[in-house]
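Archive record
______________

***
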Amino acid sequence: MPKGKGPQGKRITLKMAKNSIRVAFNGRRRLDLSKMGIATFPKCILELADVEELDLSRNMLRKIPNTIEKFQNLMWLDLHSNQLDELPAAIGTLQNLTFLNLCNNKLTTKGLPEELTLLKNLRTLNLGLNCLETIPTTLGTLRELIELGLFDNALTIIPKSVKNLPKLERLNVKRNPLPEFAEEDEPIDTIKRIESLYLVEKKDLCGPCLQMCQGERDELHKLEDVTPGPSDKPSFPSLVTPNSTARDNQEEWRIK
């Protein structure tokens, strides 16, 4: 088996980590270790704990240690697409965090520590694609949240404290068994949707309208399996003898 490979995933050295530091568009230093095949949190990156952004997304991490508290300058933390089922309590010490992406992991409600509510500066929190059955009402204390992703979980209710967050602009709860967001197929009442109804005779109809009515009549006869007999005066089920109002408003009716 090649050196550095195996059940523990790829081994990250301090040199590799230093070479993975990039300057983001906002001027922050980002330690980008995404897509590296990492299965264990690299201890060596504690030497680089002064970075402002840390990307460990798309790896095989099962646990984030409490030593994450060393990264006190972190404003941006991306852990999406790993195999995390819980977060450490020390996550709450990262008081400068404004962005936290935990999407596409195995997080359960029990795996969300109460200390998560200490991230008072958090503006974006993504918990989508996890195994959450409930959302702690205490998340309502994150009053700076602008964007909250809860999609693709097993949620049946969203706490009012979360829905009523003062600065929340985007709340994604798609593909959850939420009764309040269930789509109901209501029957369309065509009568209620009619704004105007004018009754005219055959001679008052324009060519296209007459053809349409005749077609509808023929379809109706087919459905009833009735062969129409000869008649000098065709019968249009939806039309009756006109009155003066229908004649006076004929052009208006045609426009509509």
Remarks:
- The CA atoms of residues 203 and 210 lie 9 Å apart.
